[in-house]
């Protein structure tokens, strides 16, 4: 089965967006280089960030996110982001009216059901869980194997927390990846079991 990885860009003070759901300068690293990260050419990063991020993106089979992220992105117009095969959406609501039932999006109730569905879809590829409330719930439930952070050199002061509403201690191993890119520090931690 594929590894389950919690992932997101985060401010130095632990936020993934401001109180209005805007990432602001958190994604500045995605346009601060000269190496195209995807086919669109809109994202250009440093060579170090490209080597780290592209190899990760290429291994993702399924992304898990919450309904809030799904709604903010308008469901990526029914096309999973970054070439990912499937998106599993954690929600208590049905798909939006008019949603294409053929789109590779799966709506489930709860993080455990989401990880189970993602494992069925991903095979041996990675399962990415978006940072925030859903990621924090998956961490608290013991479902996360690794935490990946793209730490941006910005202090937001308040907003949406990387680990959501996690209110208990969780230990991570020492970082096994520390890569400095332009306007970002990439960190990977295995979750201590």
From TrEMBL:
<protein>
    <recommendedName>
        <fullName>Bacterial bifunctional deaminase-reductase C-terminal domain-containing protein</fullName>
    </recommendedName>
</protein>
<dbReference type="InterPro" id="IPR002734">
    <property type="entry name" value="RibDG_C"/>
</dbReference>
<dbReference type="InterPro" id="IPR024072">
    <property type="entry name" value="DHFR-like_dom_sf"/>
</dbReference>
<dbReference type="GO" id="GO:0008703">
    <property type="term" value="F:5-amino-6-(5-phosphoribosylamino)uracil reductase activity"/>
</dbReference>
<dbReference type="Pfam" id="PF01872">
    <property type="entry name" value="RibD_C"/>
</dbReference>
<feature type="domain" description="Bacterial bifunctional deaminase-reductase C-terminal">
    <location>
        <begin position="112"/>
        <end position="170"/>
    </location>
</feature>
<dbReference type="GO" id="GO:0009231">
    <property type="term" value="P:riboflavin biosynthetic process"/>
</dbReference>
